[in-house]
Structures are given as C-alpha cells and as structure tokens.
Amino acid sequence: MENEYNQSREAKFKIGQVVRHRVFAFRGVIFDVDPEFANTEEWLQAIPEKVRPHRDQPFYHLLAENETSYYIAYVSQQNLLEDTSGQPIDHPEVHTYFTEFRGNHYNLRSGYAN
C-alpha cells in the first residue's frame, strides 16, 4: 500500500509537456506542478463528487485550450494523459514561459525555474 501511495505522489508529467484531459475536451502545456493539492476547498468542492480527484497527488497548472477559448487550468494527475497529437498549443501565453516546440513538449525559457 505504501508503494502505491508513493507512486501516486510522484509527478508523472514534466513542465513543458503537452497533455490532454482524460474526460473533458481540452489540452494544454504544463507550466507549474504542485506535489499535492494546493487550491481552495471551495474549488475542490465545486467538482462533482463522482469525479472529484483525491488531494494526495500532483496537480498541474496548464496553459489550456479547447475549441473556443484559452485559459489557465488546474488539473490532477489522475485526469491527465500525454497528448500524442504532435500539435503545438496556441495559447497566447505559451511564449511567456517557453521557447521552441519539439513534438510533444516545449523548452522552458531561461529565467524560469522548473
């Protein structure tokens, strides 16, 4: 059981990696990672209980996009999958954090810690 717990706490995805949501139709690039839930209780409770993620796992900050808009998303590790489309993210803030796109990830701009 301890091993399972430790594995769920390890970040599976990296800053600069392009990912997609497991349930909802959006994708994004990771620009920050919290080792466990670090948002408000109200935010967590607003998620339907059936799909509410557990707190003890990494949560990722994404520059996200769907078919109609760009936004910042905060997503649990259990709800992310690697994006294999090979397509860049069009979010207008991508170049604030990253330089070139290489297949499924962006290179972090110098001056930003990861």
Keywords:
single chain, 114 residues, alpha+beta, SH3 type barrels, five-stranded antiparallel sheet, two-stranded antiparallel ribbon, disordered N terminus
Explain this structure to me?
The protein is of the alpha+beta class. The chain has one domain (2-108): SH3 type barrels, CATH 2.30.30.390. Helices cover 15% and strands 32% of the residues. The protein has three helices and seven strands; from the N terminus they run H-E-E-H-E-E-E-H-E-E. Strand 1 (18-21) and strand 2 form a beta hairpin. It is globular, with a radius of gyration of 14 Å. Residues 1-5 have low confidence and may be disordered.
CATH structural fold name: SH3 type barrels
Count of helices?
3
CATH homologous superfamily placement: Hemimethylated DNA-binding domain
Q: Strand tally, please?
A: 7
Please describe the biggest sheet, giving its number of strands, its sense, and whether it closes into a barrel: 5 strands, antiparallel
Please give the domain count: 1
Structural category: alpha+beta
CATH class: Mainly Beta
| Shape, principal axes of CA atoms | globular
Order of helices and strands: HEEHEEEHEE
Level of helix content? 10-25%
Uncertain parts: 1-5
Q: Which percent band covers the strand fraction? A: 25-35%
Gyration radius, rounded: 14 Å
Mean model confidence by pLDDT: 92
Briefly summarize what is shown.
The protein has helices at residues 2-9, 41-45, 94-97, and strands spanning 18-21, 27-34, 59-65, 70-76, 80-82, 98-101, 106-108. The chain is of the alpha+beta class and 114 residues long.
